[in-house]
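step 3/5: co-fold with iron/sulfur cluster
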Amino acid sequence: METTTTVNIRRTPDLDLNELRALNERYETAHPCEIITWAQQNFGHNLALTTSFSDTLLIDLALKVDPDLEVIFLDTGYHFSQTLQTLRQAQKRYRINLRVIRPQPPAADLWAAGTDQCCNQRKVEPLNQALADKTAWLSGLRRTDSPQRAHTPIIEQDRRGLIKINPLAAWPEKDLTEYWEQNNILTNPLTAEGYSSIGCWPCTERPAENEDLRSGRWTSSNKTECGIHL
Ligand code: SF4
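step 4/5: write tokens
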């Protein structure tokens, strides 16, 4: 089903293609904290982090750089209880400047009728509203998540005109695992059951079955992304 997304194009400190290319070359092999530091120094309070509480890796890294960083969680109304449990554990572990965003006005129950429209009302539009007063945001995208994410840049300009920073995109698995273990990163309990990508329960239908870590999502359609990263 075709959907319409209202996107207010914002004017940010423009980075032209040459500057973006240079930044991506500079930070391709950088530690995520270096990348987050660049973002914090350039965008300050106009920077936010988005998380789905599959784990607290990005939160752990980012709060070491900026303990006051705003953390956005999109409460679609369809999260697994284990996801909300991970959120509560994270609130006990960290002092999170958490902003929970829910669809406004309340969204219709649409996932069974059309996932694009449902994602649009419960994720895409709420995130647009949450980022309306921001100039940049941090996401936990990794190139190893799926074939569609294999070329994720470290720094890009999104369709809203915001600067989107993906500090984990190119972090080597070995370094990530080492950091994870040393810092006892909180993990959604569903991960132990093979769910390597966790979203809303109606559309996280099964554990991943191959190297595509998101292959358990939207298994009955060709959909691979909810739309917030497109
Ligand atoms: S992932 Fe599924 S339930 Fe969640 S917003 Fe999208 S369509 Fe709706």
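step 5/5: annotate
The domain at 17-203 is CATH 3.40.50.620 (Rossmann fold).
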